[in-house]
Amino acid sequence: MPSFVGAFWPGLPLDSLLSTQGIMVMLLVAYAGAMWLFLTSAPKVHTMMVSDLEMARRFYEGMLGLPAADVPLHYYYNYEQTLGTAGLDPMYLSSSLGSSDRAIGSPDGLWYQLKKNTQLHVITGASLGHKDRQRHVCFDHDCLEQVLMQVQLRRIKYKVRRDQPLNFLVKDYDGRVIELAEISN
After folding, report:
1. C-alpha atoms less than 13 angstroms from C-alpha of 104 in its C-beta half-sphere
2. Cα(134)–Cα(26) distance, rounded to whole angstroms?
3. Is 185 exposed, middle or buried (CB count within 10 Å of its CB: 0-12, 13-18, 19+)?
4. Number of domains making up the chain
5. Are strands 118-124 and 167-171 parallel, antiparallel or unpaired?
6. Helix and strand element counts for the chain (H, E)
7. Strand (E) or helix (H) holding 35
8. Tens digits of per-residue pLDDT, 14-65?
9. Does 111 lie in the same domain as 76?
10. Which of 131, 150, 173, 156 is nearest to 48 (CA)?
11. Are residues 114 and 150 in the same domain?
């Protein structure tokens, strides 16, 4: 009577499949498949550094109406790539690097859903801009384009200052100017 496995792999003897080496290979294949499923289903996360987290909350939740999102599972296991601050221009960093390092390496901050499988992670770490303007900085052009699209959909007044790297201004409900800028490497 032919074995069940023999129907799929006619030349494979059952004892080699059930050996220690065969079981280890099957476990590794199953683990690789599970990791692939986990990583491909994980949302793309854009990180935005802001100068004031509470004002950012009012902007992203109140003005843009972005829904809050759960922290992605891969952030709990430190799968995220940390933001390297060695190549940053000091004008983009706050005066207290200790607090921004804590925010960069942890899932703290604000989490919003931008698109179906895209999230925005808002953390502290940006310095105030010209004339004490609130500053939101990002390393990803696509992230700022999505935020600009949300601004346009809400018909909020804005002014694009530069396309490459993207830089635009928005006024919040209190009349304060918020600068959203892309940091180019």
Report:
1. 17
2. 54
3. exposed
4. 2
5. unpaired
6. 7, 7
7. helix 20-41
8. 666 678 888 888 889 889 888 887 777 777 888 888 888 888 899 899 888 9
9. yes
10. 150
11. yes
